[in-house]
Design a protein that fits this description.
The complex is a heterodimer of chains A (345) and B (193).
Chain A (H helix, E strand, L loop, with lengths): L1 H22 L10 E13 L16 E15 L2 E9 L1 H4 L9 E9 L4 E9 L19 H5 L3 E12 L2 E8 L15 E8 L5 E10 L3 E11 L4 E11 L7 E12 L4 E13 L14 E13 L2 E11 L6 E2 L5 E2 L1 E12 L1
Antiparallel strand pairs in A: 1-2, 1-18, 2-3, 3-4, 4-5, 5-6, 6-7, 7-8, 8-9, 9-10, 10-11, 11-12, 12-13, 13-14, 14-15, 15-18, 16-17
Chain B lengths: L1 H18 L5 E2 L5 E8 L5 H15 L6 E5 L2 E14 L6 E15 L2 E16 L5 E3 L5 E2 L9 H27 L17
Helix pairs in contact in B: 2-3
The chains are: A mainly beta (345), B alpha+beta (193).
């Protein structure tokens, strides 16, 4: 009994020490090894009774399904750091190129000076508004711009921070998007990002990724926190197909979001996506020369580490080439409801 | 054995009690403040001033300091920030930052200092799996109850209080002890016996 009591006392004592450790703020020294990540699950119902909307993730209809488990590991020592982010699950499988690799981010980084950083490895793309991680997205479903743009770029980049208001990244990346190694043995995609803060709380990213294998995408992504409760985001992109093909896509999406309480934020995504006339085609969008529009109403309800995401989405394709109704006949519209739960740690 | 158990229980309670201790008070503007007056018998104002500057240049080197000098009294002020954390062990990671204003006022044989104006900005995960500030979200800790969970506010107040105490403890060390001069390293010359 005494031994048990002594053991319990030691455990409680250790817990007390760990509580104190939380209160200690380090002002110097290297950051410890950090593990973070998220887990997500969802229920989706397309009102036609079958899956219709072809954008990434949350594809399984009338099913309580899983997204992915995402595990990030990072460490900094002096000016050197690394990030390794692994993921497992359907959302992971749809977002990475090689089954069995499970890597979302794997890069090393070094600050040559306080303003000049070098990074090399496999990184989430710098293009676009939305991202793969459900913990870093407001909407659970994704846009056509996201689905048709790059997910990751492997390469080497240098970033110079001129001030808090201006920075410039330039890099050279593998010939293909979303690949761990070059497709044709070339590292010939040029990428650049100019970040500007025109006024306080308004950030603008001007992006370009251009290569003979992957095509050329110009992208503008911007976020403006207009008040403490209201944020407006916008994404515009124009993609020209790579050598040997013609066409591409262009589109714009707008993301107003308003916090109505400390736990609830309401948001809307309105998107227009057009596919250019040509030989380039996508399975996640309209036929060449056609367009689709979508409007998505999303709420984020936070409860501790959980974010619950109810979402309703309406897409329209007037050419009736994308969607089918409950009877399987071509129709111009599709709609779906999603309820997702994301646990971030 | 009983004594050992009693001692360990006592230590545990002290440790937990310390973690929950409120180190911040409210000032006349209903703002959180960490305020201390320190007696320094035998220390003239100019010595304390120089040591205060030395402390700030070491602890918050990037901060622009504002100094004012009046008859028999000098003051140094500026702004800084601290990083807040959530989780424990390997799961412990940055979750936000708190900006603050500090003032140090110095007279002969004493000084006082205070930290106030604590404003919290939450971090969010970016596409590269880094934690970065959410632009435009600035929550004064006094008004945090309308924007943040009670448990989070308690944690941030504890972390802020602990940071202020650490700030004050380090400042006192610098005030009491003269800055160390760089001592040249004695080298052994091997071509002489």
């Amino acid at each position: 009994m005494k031994k048990k009591l002594l053991l319990l006392t030691f455990i409680v004592s250790a817990f007390g020490l760990s509580l104190k450790a939380q209160d200690t703020v380090k002002t110097t020294g290297d950051a410890p090894l950090v593990l973070n990540g998220s887990v997500d699950t969802y229920f989706k119902s397309d009102f036609s009774g079958h899956g219709n909307i072809p954008t990434s993730f949350a594809n399984e209809n009338s099913s309580i399904s899983i997204g992915m488990i995402d595990l990030g590991l990072k460490k900094s020592v002096g000016n050197a750091s690394f990030v390794g982010e692994l993921s497992f699950g359907p959302r992971s499988d749809q977002s990475i190129p090689t089954a069995g690799y499970h890597i979302q981010n794997l890069y090393v980084s070094y600050n040559l000076t306080s303003k000049f950083n070098l990074t090399a490895g496999y990184m989430s793309t710098f293009i676009g508004y939305e991202v793969i991680s459900p913990a870093a997205n407001f909407n659970y479903s994704t846009s056509y711009l996201f689905t048709n743009g790059p997910f990751q770029n492997a390469g080497f980049k240098a970033t110079y921070t001129f001030s808090d208001k201006v920075s410039l990244m330039a890099g050279i990346f593998n010939d293909g998007w979303n690949v761990y190694q070059s497709v044709g043995g070339r590292v010939n995609t040029f990428g650049a990002q100019l970040m500007v803060v025109p006024v306080k709380n308004w950030t603008v990213y001007l992006n370009v990724a251009a290569g003979p294998q992957s095509g050329t995408e110009f992208d503008v992504t911007t976020n403006y926190q207009i008040t403490s409760a209201f944020k407006l985001g916008l994404n515009y992109a124009d993609f020209s197909a790579p050598s040997g093909t013609t066409g591409g896509f262009s589109g714009v999406a707008i993301y107003p979001q308003i916090a109505v309480s400390k736990a609830v934020t309401l948001g809307l995504r309105g998107e227009i996506f057009s596919t250019k006339t040509g030989t380039w085609a996508t399975t996640a969008g309209p036929a060449p020369g056609d367009k689709v529009s979508g409007i998505t109403f999303t709420a984020n309800v936070k409860a501790g580490p959980f974010t619950f995401i109810p979402e309703i989405r309406f897409d329209n394709n007037s050419a009736k080439t994308m969607f089918t109704d409950g009877g399987g006949a071509a129709t111009s519209s599709a709609s779906q409801f999603v309820l997702a739960a994301v646990y971030a740690f | 054995m009983k004594s050992l158990i009693t001692a360990l229980v006592f230590i545990t309670l002290v440790k937990v009690g310390f973690a929950q201790q409120e180190l911040l008070s409210f000032d006349e503007h209903n703002k959180y403040i960490y305020y201390q007056v320190m007696d320094m018998p035998g220390f003239p104002a100019d010595t304390l001033h120089n040591r205060g500057i030395c402390f700030l240049k070491t602890v918050v080197p990037k901060v622009k300091l504002k100094q004012t000098v009046a008859a028999g009294e000098t003051s140094i002020s500026g702004a800084g920030k601290l990083i807040t954390y959530t989780g424990i062990g390997i799961m412990r990671h940055e979750c936000g930052e708190i900006t603050y204003l500090f003032n140090i006022e110095i007279k002969d044989q004493k000084y006082r200092y205070w930290l106030t104006g604590f404003t919290f900005t939450p971090y969010k995960r970016d596409r590269y799996d880094n934690q970065v500030p959410e632009p435009g979200v600035e929550i004064p800790l006094e008004a945090a109850s309308t924007k943040l969970d009670k448990r989070d506010i308690t944690s941030y107040l504890n972390q802020t209080g602990a940071f202020c105490k650490e700030f004050g403890d380090k400042l006192k060390l610098y005030m009491v002890n003269a800055p160390k001069k760089d001592e040249s390293i004695k080298k052994i010359v091997t071509d002489k016996w």
